Amino acid sequence: MKNTKKVNRFRLDIWGIAGLVILITYLLFLVYPVGNILKQSFYTSELGFSIENFSKFFSMSYYSDTLFNSFKVSITATFFALIIGILLAYLFAMFDFKGKKFLRILIIIASMSAPFIGAYSWILLLGRSGVITSFLSRIFGFQMPDIYGFSGIVLVFTLQLFPLIFLYINGAFKSIDQSILEAAEGMGVTGIRRFFKVVLPLLMPTVLAGALLVFMRAFSDFGTPMLIGEGYRTFPVLIYTEFISEVGGDAAFASALAVIAIVIALSIFMLQQVVSLRFAFSMNALHPVGTKKVTGIKKVLVYVASYGIVFTAVLPQLYLVYTSFQNTSGMVFQSGYSLDSYLEAFSRMGNSIFNTIRIPFFAIILVILFAVFISYLAVRRRNAVTSTIDSLSMIPYIVPGTVLGIAYLTSYNTGIGGSGILSITGTTMILVISFAVRRLPYTIRSSVASLHQISPSIEEAAQSLGSSKLNTFFRITVPMMMPGIIAGAILSWITMISELSTSILLYTVNTRTVTVAIYTEVIRGNYGIAAALSTILMIFTVLSLLLFMKVSGKDEISL
Amino acid sequence: MTLIKIEHAKKVFDHTVVIPDLNITIKEGALFTLLGPSGCGKTTLLRMIAGFNSIEGGDFYFNEKRINDQEPSRRNIGMVFQNYAIFPHLTVRENVEFGLKQRKLDKKIIRERAEKYLKLIQMEKFMDRKPEQLSGGQQQRVALARALAINPEVLLMDEPLSNLDAKLRIDMRKAIREIQREVGITTVYVTHDQEEAMAISDQIAVMKDGIVQQVGSPKSLYHRPSNEFVASFIGRTNMLNAELKHNEEGIAELHLQNGFTIPYPKLNHLDDQQVRISIRPEDFIRVEDTTSVDTFKVRIEDSVYLGLNTEYVVSLTDKHHIQVTEESSFDEDLNVGDRVHLTINTNKINVYCADGLTNLSEVK
Question: What are B309's strand-pairing partners?
Fold first, then answer.
């Protein structure tokens, strides 16, 4: 028995050490900065403990209105994204038409770009001197409604985010059995009534999950309202400007705002959990819904709707590709075409292109390493430490990117607790870690899912064949988890290369990414370079997507 | 060859004693089956032998070697799982070679040994395939070859056939039996299927609530179940209450509740008492001519024609229902409501004391 205990303790050491390392990492890079924000929001050296920052926010409509604005845009955008996403998914699931695969890839590309790039392109198209605006007013004398402010933000968010709803619902349709629709038809419920009475209720859990995701993204995005909002300020814009503003940025007040953002995100997350529990049921389709051929006017409508929606979604991207080849001078596009914008982009922003590969690459390696260990510890070796890690790893899920950026900046500026240890502000490391921390929840989820697919008896079989636990982990468990993890990692990679809200706060000249460069060039009015960089970013995205499809063997993306 | 000895094994899960005190000896080269309903502790015990479950008390020996404190990877066991547990990312050959590679054998020997066992299970054609291209039965064969290839001291099989369909189950259990004999390895086999246990085993331990009820050959379990649980778990049986009484000549008699009396001189040495009698359905004999033998009357309540046999549910005059099996014939014409006469094959009945825990008819 003595011997047994010794072996047990030793075994616990290997995984125990891994667990402790991970726990310490989370304490350093998540609990400490987020806790620091909390502390800053309540405590100042002059006043001691006070809720002054919070009462300042809620008592002045100049501040609190931004919260109202954010809810207004996010809810409106979620509503429209749901309508368009569900409509498109319905068309895809029910009808037979050509080019579905192509359209699906376009939709994915549209969803993968940074929202503010869409905003910028829509300004070029529909803004005061936009191409479409001036075309319409010149030819027809028709005055386009103003795109700046509320309507513009909603337009960009809707077009940016409906693809997520589409991808979700598209997957959900596969679990609806054809016989359910036929049964409804047999009882005299057809067409639009069948959609609202039968199909939509079946899709409800997915709709809710998708709506949450879309709402959270819209709520936390700051690039879009920054560019197209003009006077219409949303909450993330307020957080950013309060923190960064050159005239007396107020870190304590910004921290209070960050805390409010976290509380809101957490409440919405929990609300969604409660609501979706009420709608939860499981379905299994032996014969998924089959598509039908359509003819006549219906066929025309199906084509117009599906191609129209997808074309509108990718239009800003396409237009940027076009303008990237135009001659420019600052904000003005000149006649004639050349590669000047690209040459300039490479010469002035060359390091950002390299950074866009380098920083996410390191982050992805961290993500994979941590995700594999955390999921294994959480699933196979549950104890107090691993459960803590499991819960901690989900925190970034509800912490908006801007908030994490502020937390990192204020926490590591002078090292931990001002000690100079880990004063990593301005380094590549701070970007790598922030990217990794933000993406980890997603990758952990997918690797936990793939670990659940692996029966413990497979690991026991390896042990019975003489393989030690560590050997079994590396030879059997990890290789079996890998395909799922790699596929997930590529998706994480794509979101990282178009990440703005954290990196805009943490970047320096040496660590700026293409996305940050696009943003700053747009702000500075160097539209040519911005377009060229956007095109390069899009090429990265498309290549990564192709790689994902090759690795996962699917032309679909499940989120 | 390895003898497995388990002395005073104890297993506790979360403060619940699952196995209180268990003793078993498994002979060299035997196919030994742990049989019992789910939750009886059979898989728990197997996993204690394998090393995947901790041992809270007692000693486990392979021959003279105590294995309690050994890691599973050092016990030199071959294990076959219910869900095959084939490594999906490796080919059939790589699966079989996996255990050999852990032993750092020469490459040539590894190849040869893997091929030898793949031939034994007739899977050499599929050597370079990935497991996903194999059927369940084929995967389980590969699992068997993989377990045997490392020359384990003992082979442990945890419900290996439960995931296969009925027909394949029968083919596979034959294959397992043949290969086990050929290799001559001590095997512990876990199943909840009593027919499978009967067909495959040299010895069976029937378990309930973590306690071994009886260890014996399939035949002795069927004919001389040591208590009421074993009698009803192995095959089917009718349990009837009766009274053991001695007549004037001192001969023991069993008085059934319907008034029928069975002379049972085997139990002459016992005192008069209440007993329980186990009578298998096939040990009731229908009698047309009631003059030469003692019979009792029953009424047919239901009948199921199964081809080889016909099964009847009949009611006794004391309203108890019993099951009766008779070989079917073409002219049988018995309907619900018909009354027939039955007698009992007294040689094959078993008499238990009133609590059903002791078999009184066992010749001591």
Answer: B327
Do A362 and A479 touch, CB atoms closer than 8 A? Answer: no
Domain A60-324 has CATH 1.10.3720.10: yes
**Cα–Cα dist A252/A234, whole Å:** 19
Nearest CA in chain A to B70: A4
pLDDT of residue A246: 52
The domain that contains B261 carries what CATH number? 2.40.50.140
Q: Do B99 and A466 touch (CB under 8 A)?
A: yes
Instruction: Note whether B205 and B266 are same-domain residues.
Output: no
Residues of chain A with pLDDT under 70: 1-13, 45, 246-249, 553-559
Check CB contact under 8 Å for A467 and B73. Answer: yes
The two three-digit tokens of residue A435, written as one number: 């990217």
> Cβ contact (<8 Å) for A461 and B78?
no
Confidence of residue B363 (pLDDT cuts 50, 70, 90): low
CA distances from A203 to A174, A199, A286, A351, B278 (A): 11, 6, 17, 46, 58
Query: In a 3-state reduction of DSSP, which class is residue A468?
Result: coil
DSSP per-residue string spanning A325-369: TEEEETTEEEEEE-SHHHHHHHHHHHHHHHHHHHHHHHHHHHHHH
What digits encode the pLDDT tens for the residues B245-301? Answer: 999 888 999 999 998 999 999 899 989 999 999 999 999 999 988 888 889 999 999
ipTM score: 0.83
| Whether B50 and A461 lie within 8 Å, measured CB to CB | no
As a whole-number percent, the residues of chain B with pLDDT over 90 amount to 77
- Asked whether B4 and B25 are in contact (CB, 8 A), the reply is yes
Taking a C-beta distance cutoff of 8 angstroms, is the pair A127, A148 a contact? yes
| pLDDT on residue A248 | 57
Which chain B residues are closer than 8 Å to A457 by Cβ?
81-83, 85
Residues in chain A within 8 Å Cβ distance of B51: 463
Q: What pLDDT sits at residue B126?
A: 92
* Domain that includes residue B319, residue range: 233-353
Q: Please tell me whether residues B81 and B156 are part of one structural domain.
A: yes
Task: Give the β-pairing of B238-246 and B252-256.
Answer: antiparallel
Same domain, B237 and B332: yes
Partners of B315 in the beta sheet?
B299, B321
Residue limits of CATH 1.10.3720.10 in chain A: 14-39+337-559, 60-324
CA separation for the pair A62, A55 (Å, rounded): 13
Tokens of residue B10, six digits: 């104890």
Q: What are phi and psi of A393, to 5 degrees?
A: -65, -15
Question: Are the CB atoms for A340 and A323 separated by under 8 Å?
Answer: no
Q: Are residues B277 and B228 in the same domain?
A: no
- How many structural domains are present in chain B? 2
CATH of the domain at B116: 3.40.50.300
pLDDT in tens, B98-153: 999 998 889 999 999 999 999 988 888 999 999 988 998 899 999 999 999 999 99
Q: Do A466 and B81 touch (CB under 8 A)?
A: no
